[in-house]
Amino acid sequence: MATAERKWIPVAEQAKLVRGTLKRAFPGIKFSVRSSTFSGGASIDVRYEDGPRQSDIQAVLNAYKGGDFDGMIDMAYNRSHYLRPDGATFVAYDPGTVGSMGTHEGEDNRALADVMPSDVVEVSFAANYVTANREISDFERKEAEALAWIRENCITEAEGTRFGNDWVDNIARLMVYRRIEGETWADAFENRHNR
């Protein structure tokens, strides 16, 4: 692959790559993938209902983020990727922010350029922000079920409104948002902090 010119991927083409990857990674889940441009950048918003945890989807989407932002030092930065013909991608170069007193570790895979197949290209993605948003069907009913489970299975305080340092209503919402198909309410309670 040597030192070929880096290819710019516009946000619409980036959104198509994201859509294809999600379709392969999560068959049977219907995703809405919307791209938008704005002054100074672009973003891709992925929405879906129920299905996998949002963190599982976001882990896939992170491979398509053209950059990131470190709020600890108020610094945005870009990264480049290697793009395979099937649409899969991995980081070529991510400068991170540690060298600027930030918290994001960098990653440098540019040494691999000489051993890459000729059909793998280095790219820059237009959209830095690629985010997943999971919606929950029949949320109110599920929240009521979670609340009932908590009150039946946990020792609560303050007339059933608190469990330790947390509000019972907040715990129930977390359980609903983090619960996946086939998981019991007991599992959801244990996994409520897993995104």
Describe the structure.
This protein has 195 residues and is an alpha+beta fold. It folds into two domains: 7-135, no CATH class; 139-190. Helix content is 28%, strand content 29%. The chain is built from five helices and twelve strands. The chain has helices spanning 11-25, 54-61, 139-153, 168-178, 185-190; strands spanning 7-9, 31-38, 41-49, 67-70, 75-78, 80-83, 89-94, 107-108, 121-125, 129-135, 162-163, 166-167. It has a five-stranded mixed β-sheet with strand order 1-9-6-7-8. Strands 2-3-10 form a three-stranded mixed β-sheet. A hairpin with a 5-residue loop joins strand 6 and strand 7. The protein is elongated, with a radius of gyration of 21 Å.
